[in-house]
Write a structure and sequence with these properties.
- With 185 residues, this protein is mainly β.
- The chain has a single domain, classed as Beta Barrel (Lipocalin).
- It is 4% helix and 54% strand.
- It is built from 1 helix and 11 strands.
- The radius of gyration is 18 Å and the shape is elongated.
- The mean pLDDT is 88.
- It comes from Arthrobacter wenxiniae.
- Belongs to the UPF0312 family.
């Protein structure tokens, strides 16, 4: 998106606020080597700031670690605890973008992801889903993106060996975003 004007794709310069009611910040991790556990963080706040070109875009996001939800209360409690997210000591996960590249449809959003106080560079590969004005006059923009991280790089090293070999929780975690932003008035 280096030289693409934001107006070319129907966006406008300024601040866009995260639409939590119409967005999902999810994850997938392989469990026991045979299935995948999926879930999401339900308390997210983010801001998209657009300049003249899409390359000028900036995204900041704060995720409340305690909002981790995989649909299983026991697992959620374990992941929120000291073995994983340690939410009492590290109440938030954050993302701050460092650059955007691509074109009108497909893009890469690079940035710093911080989990448990450890920051690492990540790159989300994504798709711009367009802009729409809703019946109430709000201008909305939609995006999908994903990245794969190593949980060990963020200090999330807990695991259990399986009798048949391998481990209970894979190192690789896929983070998926299906998000909407609303143009600030």
């Amino acid at each position: 998106m280096t030289a693409t004007s934001v107006e070319t794709v129907g966006l406008s310069q300024g601040t866009w606020n995260f639409d939590a009611a119409h967005s999902t910040v999810g994850f997938t991790v392989r469990h026991a080597g045979i299935s995948k556990v999926r879930g999401q963080f339900t308390d997210v706040d983010a801001t998209l700031t657009l300049g003249k070109t899409l390359a000028d875009a900036a995204v900041t996001a704060t995720i409340q670690a305690n909002s981790f939800n995989s649909g299983d209360a026991n697992r959620d409690g374990h992941v929120r605890g000291a073995d994983f997210l340690e939410v009492e000591e590290h109440p938030t996960l954050t993302f701050t973008s460092t650059g955007v590249s691509g074109d009108e449809g497909d893009f890469e959003l690079a940035g710093e992801l911080t989990i448990r106080g450890i920051s690492k560079p990540v790159t989300f590969k994504g798709e711009f889903n367009g802009v729409a004005v809703d019946p109430f006059g709000a201008t909305r923009a939609g995006f999908e993106a994903k990245t794969v991280i190593s949980r060990k790089e963020f200090g999330l090293t807990w695991n259990a060996a399986l009798e048949a070999g391998g481990v209970l929780v894979s190192d690789k975690v896929t983070i998926t975003l299906d998000v909407a932003f609303v143009k600030a008035a």
